[in-house]
Amino acid sequence: MPYTYDYTSAVAGDESASARYWRFAKMTLTRWTRAKTFVFDGRSYQYLYHFCNKTWKNERGVEIPIFRELLLEHEGKRVLEVGNVLSHYFPIHHDVVDKYEVAPGVINQDIVEFAPSERYDLILSISTLEHVGWDETPREPEKLLQAIEHLRNHCLAPGGQIIASLPLGYNKFLDGLLRDGNSPFTTQHFLKRISKRNYWLESDWERCRNVPYGRFVAHAIMVGTIRG
Q1: Boundaries of every domain in the chain
Q2: Could you tell me if 82 and 131 are in contact, meaning their C-beta atoms sit under 8 angstroms apart?
Q3: How much is the mean pLDDT over the chain?
Q4: Closest CA to 189 of 62, 51, 12
Q5: CA atoms lying within 13 Å on the CB side of residue 71
Q6: What's the pLDDT at 32?
Q7: Which of 38, 101, 179, 197 is deepest in the core (most CB within 10 A)?
Q8: Looking at domain 17-227, which CATH architecture does it have?
Q9: pLDDT digits (tens, 9 = 90+) for 169-207
């Protein structure tokens, strides 16, 4: 079964039907009047306009298309997602570990303790790893490195890949690692938000290093890769 977008299945919650349809109309109008594509790592993607998290306002508009393509490229492979994100946008067929979010099929376990019976060909994480240790009490900044090392040494199959997006300006420990040339990732690419219309442009660390984390939105993200 392919990974397909579903623009209509967002949970309405307490929202009235009229409010939901107005939001759908606003999303559709925004999609018509804005740029349709962005470029990342030399490849063109379509911006995502979706109810969930109002993707036309934040980094989800670029993260989800990038990671959806990765899933399509790994159909039939063993895939693990750290942080339950993709299932909010389309049907998924892979394992998900999320310590806090309770949902059908989600494994509620701390990632540093997760011990799979089989290793994974692809491990994905979308704006999740920056919270590991940083948003916990007591704060343990270096737990981020422990989580990445655990994924690489105990969860990743030989020849596999870990690919994660992380916002810049949120986790000061991560920003310090990048600033000092100590990134835990083998390679990293950067996207920078260049407009209130939520347009994103390929960039580099020097042009992203001092970009602040905005209110409910990242203004720059890194997509890091580790190969097994």
Answers
A1: 17-227
A2: no
A3: 91
A4: 62
A5: 25
A6: 74
A7: 38
A8: 3-Layer(aba) Sandwich (3.40)
A9: 999 999 999 999 999 999 999 999 999 999 999 999 999
Q: Which residue has the higher pLDDT, 197 or 2?
A: 197
CA-closest candidate to residue 53, choices 40, 63, 67, 66: 63
- Report residue 187 as tokens: 């390679």
**Tens-place pLDDT, residues 139-175:** 999 999 999 999 999 999 999 999 999 999 999 999 9
